[in-house]
Amino acid sequence: MRHYFPATIIAVVIYFVLSFLADMLLEESTRTTFAIALEAALKAALFGALFHVVHGWLGGFFGFYEYDAEIDGPQGKGPSA
């Protein structure tokens, strides 16, 4: 699951910027900049959650992210007795 986070972060940042700019430049609104940014952040958070789940499912379905014992396994065996 660790492999999906960079793609999710990049997708959310791009979605936020495009949503914010589209609302600022293409809509005539009386909303404040803070309200537009808040709405863009909420939409980006929802998009990020959906993107993360779908990306993980498709990656697992097509075998893009195979299990690697060095990366995905436990890091230590705990304290020595």
Number of contiguous helices: 3
Structural class by helix and strand composition: mainly alpha
Nearest-integer average pLDDT: 84
Q: Low-confidence parts lasting 5 or more residues at pLDDT below 50?
A: none
**Assembly context of the chains:** single chain
Residues in helices, as a percent range:
55-70%
Give the helices and strands as they follow along the chain: HHH
| Dominant shape | elongated
Percent in strands? under 5%
Number-wise, the strands total 0
Rg from alpha-carbon coordinates = 19 Å
Ends: how far apart?
32 Å
Please explain how this structure is put together.
With 81 residues, the protein is mainly α. The chain is built from three helices and no strands. The longest helix has 30 residues. The chain starts with a helix and ends in a 9-residue tail after the last helix. The model has no long low-confidence stretch (mean pLDDT 84).
Salient structural properties:
elongated, 81 residues, mainly alpha
